[in-house]
């Protein structure tokens, strides 16, 4: 299954709605970079509201795709990280540092807008 | 309600953590502990897949002095861990950082025991108690 990537003006919106297996996560990485290239998107919001756990593999794929997007000139904001996900990620020892985050999609889009204006 | 998942490929990692989450939910664990249990199982199953190639993860219910807990047993006949003390240090990895490592898993659970013999395999027992 592929994760849909929506275009909104110069931004891309992704809402991850189901548990990510390795292949889906890696496919998403490729799909997002291709879409950034095709659409010349400057910003990306990845919403994780429906995700109830993140292991080290998914965290690595997410962290990597954020760095890769940055290389292509697009800023990424992660939104909707659930309390249980934040707690387990830190306990596990994973720090997604230098990653832009916001509480929800709305605040994420506002944050992205401000980042792109700077 | 003992149940095991054989780990031989990436999809088995998903099956193992789904089993663990279902059992955790049935036992009455809250969402944060469900996430801890699911994540711990995912890391242990991934270690089997990465280092041993195959093995199994079993989820069991346990009771002790009126307390209910969930046991995660991770077992493989892989190469074993050469230096256990090093493997339990934060940041130590022989996979190039693909997994969070055993110290991370240990922090997610209440009890953690590991037995590993080089050339024979690794057995890990982790317990999360219902609060």
Automatic annotation (TrEMBL), chain A:
InterPro entries: Bact_StressResp_Reg (IPR051932), STAS_dom (IPR002645), STAS_dom_sf (IPR036513). It holds the Pfam family STAS. SUPFAM superfamilies: SpoIIaa-like (SSF52091). Residues 1-112 form the STAS domain. This is RsbS, negative regulator of sigma-B. The lineage of its organism: Bacteria, Bacillati, Bacillota, Bacilli, Bacillales.
Automatic annotation (TrEMBL), chain B:
Residues 33-125 form the Histidine kinase/HSP90-like ATPase domain. InterPro entries: HATPase_C_sf, HATPase_dom. CDD domains: HATPase_RsbT-like (cd16934). It holds the Pfam family HATPase_c. This is Anti-sigma B factor RsbT. It comes from Bacillus badius. The lineage of its organism: Bacteria, Bacillati, Bacillota, Bacilli, Bacillales.
